[in-house]
TrEMBL record:
<feature type="domain" description="Transketolase N-terminal">
    <location>
        <begin position="142"/>
        <end position="306"/>
    </location>
</feature>
<dbReference type="InterPro" id="IPR029061">
    <property type="entry name" value="THDP-binding"/>
</dbReference>
<feature type="domain" description="Pyruvate dehydrogenase E1 component middle">
    <location>
        <begin position="489"/>
        <end position="714"/>
    </location>
</feature>
<dbReference type="Pfam" id="PF17831">
    <property type="entry name" value="PDH_E1_M"/>
</dbReference>
<keyword id="KW-0786">Thiamine pyrophosphate</keyword>
<dbReference type="Pfam" id="PF00456">
    <property type="entry name" value="Transketolase_N"/>
</dbReference>
<keyword id="KW-0670">Pyruvate</keyword>
<feature type="domain" description="Transketolase-like C-terminal">
    <location>
        <begin position="732"/>
        <end position="867"/>
    </location>
</feature>
<dbReference type="InterPro" id="IPR009014">
    <property type="entry name" value="Transketo_C/PFOR_II"/>
</dbReference>
<dbReference type="InterPro" id="IPR055152">
    <property type="entry name" value="Transketolase-like_C_2"/>
</dbReference>
<protein>
    <recommendedName>
        <fullName>Pyruvate dehydrogenase E1 component</fullName>
        <ecNumber>1.2.4.1</ecNumber>
    </recommendedName>
</protein>
<dbReference type="Pfam" id="PF22613">
    <property type="entry name" value="Transketolase_C_1"/>
</dbReference>
<dbReference type="InterPro" id="IPR004660">
    <property type="entry name" value="PDH_E1"/>
</dbReference>
<dbReference type="InterPro" id="IPR051157">
    <property type="entry name" value="PDH/Transketolase"/>
</dbReference>
<keyword id="KW-0560">Oxidoreductase</keyword>
<dbReference type="InterPro" id="IPR035807">
    <property type="entry name" value="PDC_E1_N"/>
</dbReference>
<dbReference type="GO" id="GO:0004739">
    <property type="term" value="F:pyruvate dehydrogenase (acetyl-transferring) activity"/>
</dbReference>
Length: 914
């Protein structure tokens, strides 16, 4: 990027009349001097408007000069005691670095990052002392997404506040070996549930979640659930992190919804992990253009106050021109060199700029700070950001990575990976920060350099506490006390129990009918947050449009094309549905914000995210990990699930593996229900687990996400059976239908889940009528939960060899079942194979491995050999091997059913939209 692209008057290009230009510039300077920046801005705006009216072509102004956005004359007075704040900021920087250094002693060596917080301390401390509101503030407090690699600084502050001890700091990254006094490496709420609120270290997830947190705050406000009008969301990010597509990909939502409660603070130290972010370019200018184009308010904090006089004396514009043209790679080099080097290589580029520093010592040149290290400049930016209305704000603050850590660290390419300080590094750092620790204390043990705390009664610590008290308490902090949730009664679930009568209905529609009744509940319904990408009509959720309405903070200011239809598209400020567009990543971010409102806002919301099954865990698995870390509660509905159910769409829409992907996330409870009544019991159980009163007794973790796969293939939904084994249904398996009980009949077991259960029942009938084989059919609602229970039983037995081993639930249910087992699903074989090792019987799996394709359901199921006749043949093969049926029966069956002919398949129907 050209640094001064589109800047009028920056010295770029030729000038047909320099003398006249100089007069205009002189007049403009006089206007600023006499009337101030506001008047100058007003005149410029009117001139630009007039130029447009006279059809004068102007370059697009996408970036401004490489100087501070806020002029010196507009900077507010700094309200704090800068010297006191500088003192304890230095103590924090020391303690943060020492904590990481001590964790690197040879017998521990767990790592840590020193340089990020060293460079960002000012950015955080201005916020902590003057802006970040705690949870006891009348507003309810701000939400702060801390940059993950800066976590040592947050621990160092909590140490000075008395919230953490030296023993705690020494437990950094030793979460089991120092249990009770352990600190997680990064912001992990699940690991430190009373401290951290937001996980941010999977790069790009923090920016997305911060945007949707700001939206969620406004959603609560506009729906009348909580007053969040005075809350701010702060997201601290790295300039290297902004290369992640996720970091930039959702900026439009914040602009479109005018989220002026959102502030991004990007720590522009010009470095990523291995080198410069833009060695040949300028990342601050690039980000300014990008955010400005996305509709954000942009504030640049480039230079500290020491530059103010130099810029005021730059009458020729040469200094600004050099600032504009110098590449980031050179700026990085300057901070790794010396004042003399900067004088020669930066200021020495023109005679005029060289003269600007002629009277300055090299030490003074070296002391020209970057803006992100200047309290006044950062304060001015934060104040402007919080007062700006109508747009979200991004603050681009220029800093030095490893600031103050010495020449081995500052601005070096490898500084991110450097964890250890030499003895001389420690001494230099101590001297730079003016920490009252003697040499002998450092020399006694290199890896046991002392922390510094002046004592709770020191003026500085009292001041620190006073500032936090005025702002509403300490941060970061996570609280879980929330408003009581009135859960719906049994009547709400009746729609799921009574089946579909003579009408066919897919499990997707069975779920939507249940959701409709949940939302109708007088007390509970307001807490439900349906979240849908641009597929509501596919899932039948368009039925909610006219009543629940789609959330839009601006309402609906256009005449809807389908306004006369019963299911017209309807947007509203009070809308309940979050309709995210073609945007799974944003949908999961919205899901996370809503699903943690019980903690962030004390007002529980029940997010129900319905998505195209293939585009769930495959596309956004990382976001679901972050949701689990943040202890999100809610329901994830993978609609149009299965590899052969969504027939027409083909490979990229044919989901045969999401339950396996979901099984890797410990916070996800995965179910593959076959019928509406199963869905009803699962949802009821999920709500009870998340917000019911039973967890105190059962000890079940309420911080879970229930993942249900539902299908678009219509079937007759049966009425809930009498004496249903609800416990088995919820734990993962129950017997759906016994086989016929004729004497001396070969016995077998068929395990199926989801859409495959009707195939299993058809196979049961064929085996009985055509082969005299009795097969019990089991509905496996959760292969994953059965496996988790069995693995837990194995672990218990492993650690308690003298105790009687607990029998896994799946083994209890099936261990004595007669005959072989055939398991079938619309997923890859690995899904049912999760329980294979826990059953003693001969076990065969039928699954849809490989890639999907477009075809009829019957042909696809015959191709994958998962249809009813494939179940029959595989059962006969296992029985023949045991000598319980004729050895030739499997071959006869293959020929009878033309098993190798995809056109001979009959399993499934052609109904259901895809």
């Amino acid at each position: 990027m050209v640094a001064d692209q589109g800047i009028v008057g920056s010295g770029v290009g030729g000038d047909s009349d320099p003398e006249e230009t100089a007069e205009w510039i002189e007049s403009f300077d006089q206007l600023i001097d006499q009337r101030g920046s506001d008047r100058a801005r007003d005149v410029l705006g009117r001139l630009l408007a007039r130029a447009g009216g006279r059809s004068v072509g102007l370059p697009s102004v996408v970036t401004t000069d490489y100087v501070n956005s806020i002029p010196v004359d507009e900077e507010p007075e700094f309200p704090g005691d800068e010297e006191i704040e500088r003192k304890y900021r230095a103590w924090m920087r020391w303690n943060a670095a020492v904590m990481v250094h001590r964790a690197q002693r040879p017998e521990i060596g767990v790592g840590g990052h020193i340089s990020t917080y060293a460079g960002a301390a000012t950015l955080y401390e201005v916020g902590f002392n003057h802006f970040f509101k705690g949870k006891d503030h009348p507003s309810g407090g701000d939400q702060v997404f801390f940059q993950g690699h800066a976590s040592p600084g947050m621990y160092a502050r909590a140490f000075l506040e008395g919230r953490l001890t030296e023993e705690d700091l020494d437990g950094f990254r030793q979460e089991k070996s120092k249990a009770g006094h352990a600190l997680s490496s990064y912001p992990h709420p699940r690991l430190m549930p009373e401290f951290w609120e937001f996980p941010t270290v999977s790069m790009g997830i923090g920016p997305m979640n911060a945007i949707y947190q700001a939206q969620s705050n406004r959603y609560l406000q506009n729906r009348g659930l909580k007053d969040t009008s005075d809350q701010q969301v702060w997201a601290f990010l790295g300039d290297g992190e902004m290369d992640e597509p996720e970091s930039r990909g959702l900026l439009q939502l914040a602009a479109n919804e005018n989220l002026d409660n959102l502030n991004f603070v990007i720590n522009c130290n010009l470095q990523r992990l291995d080198g410069p972010v833009r060695g040949n370019g300028k990342i601050m200018q690039e980000l300014e253009a990008f955010f400005r184009g996305a509709g954000w308010n942009v504030i640049k904090v480039v230079w500290g106050r020491e530059w103010d006089d130099l810029l005021a004396k730059d009458t020729t514009g040469d200094l600004v021109k050099i600032m504009n043209e110098t590449a980031d790679g050179d700026y990085q080099t300057y901070k790794a060199e010396s004042g003399g080097f900067v004088r020669d290589h930066f200021f020495g580029k023109t005679p005029a700029t060289k003269d600007l520093v002629a009277d300055m010592e090299d030490a003074q040149v070296w002391g020209l700070k970057r803006g992100g290290h200047d309290y006044r400049k950062v304060y001015a930016a934060y104040k402007a950001a919080t007062e700006f209305k109508g747009k979200p704000t991004v603050i681009l603050a220029k800093t030095v990575k490893g600031y103050g850590l010495g020449s081995h660290f500052e601005g070096r390419n490898a500084t991110h990976q450097m964890k250890k300080l030499t003895l001389q590094d420690l001494k230099d750092f101590r001297d730079h920060l003016r920490i009252p620790i003697p040499d002998e204390a450092l020399e006694a043990d290199l890896y046991n350099a002392p922390y510094y705390h002046p004592g709770p009664d020191s003026p500085e610590i009292k001041y620190l506490h006073e500032r936090r008290k005025a702002l509403g308490g300490y941060l970061p902090e996570r609280r879980t006390k929330h408003s009581e949730v009135a859960l719906p009664g049994d009547k709400t679930y009746e729609v799921a129990k009574r089946g579909s009568g003579k009408q066919q209905a897919a499990t997707t529609m069975a779920f939507v009918r249940l959701l409709k009744d949940l939302m109708r509940d007088k007390e509970f319904g307001k807490r439900v947050v349906p979240i849908i990408p641009d597929e509501a009509r596919t899932f039948g959720i368009d039925a909610f449009f006219p009543t629940a309405k789609i959330y839009n903070p601006k309402g609906q200011n256009y005449l809807s094309v389908d306004r006369d239809l019963v299911l017209a598209y309807k947007e509203s400020i009070q809308g309940q549905i979050l309709h995210a567009g073609i945007n799974e990543a944003g949908s999961v971010a919205a899901f996370t914000a809503a699903g943690t409102a019980y903690a962030t806002q004390g007002e529980p919301l029940i997010p129900i995210y319905v998505f195209y099954s293939m585009f769930g865990f495959q596309r956004t698995g990382d976001s679901f990990w972050a949701a689990g870390d943040q202890m999100t509660r809610g329901f994830i509905i993978g609609a149009t699930a299965g590899r052969t159910t969504l027939t027409g769409e083909g490979l990229q829409h044919a989901d045969g593996h999401s339950p396996i992907l979901a099984s890797t996330n410990p916070a996800v409870i995965t179910y593959d229900p076959a019928y509406g009544y199963e869905i009803g019991h699962i949802v009821h159980d999920g709500l009870e687990r998340m917000y019911g009163n039973g967890n105190a007794v059962s000890g079940a973790d309420p911080n879970v996400m229930y993942y249900l796969t539902v299908y678009n293939e219509p079937i007759i939904q049966p009425v809930e059976p009498e004496n249903l084994d609800v416990d088995g249904l919820l734990r993962g398996i129950y017997k759906l239908k016994d086989g016929h009980s004729a004497e001396n009949t070969p016995r077998s077991q068929i395990l199926a889940s989801g859409v495959a259960v009707p195939w299993a029942l058809e196979a049961q009938r064929i085996l009985a009528e055509e082969w005299n084989v009795s097969a019990d059919v089991w509905s496996v609602t959760s292969w994953t939960e059965l496996r988790r229970d069995a693995l837990a039983a194995e672990e218990e037995a492993f650690l308690n060899p003298d105790a009687e081993a607990r029998v896994p639930f799946v083994t209890k249910r099936l261990g004595d079942a007669p005959g072989p087992i055939v398991a079938v699903t619309d997923y890859m074989k690995a899904v049912p194979d999760q329980i294979r090792q826990f059953l003693p019987q001969d076990f065969a799996t039928l699954g849809a491995d490989g890639f999907g394709f477009s075809d009829t359901r019957a042909a696809a199921r015959r191709y994958f050999k998962i249809d009813s006749h494939s179940v029959v043949v595989r059962t006969l093969e296992l029985l023949a091997k045991r000598g319980e049926v004729d050895a030739d029966a499997p071959r006869q069956a293959i020929e009878k059913y033309a098993l190798l002919d995809v056109n001979a398949g009959t399993t499934g129907n052609a109904g259901g939209d895809s």
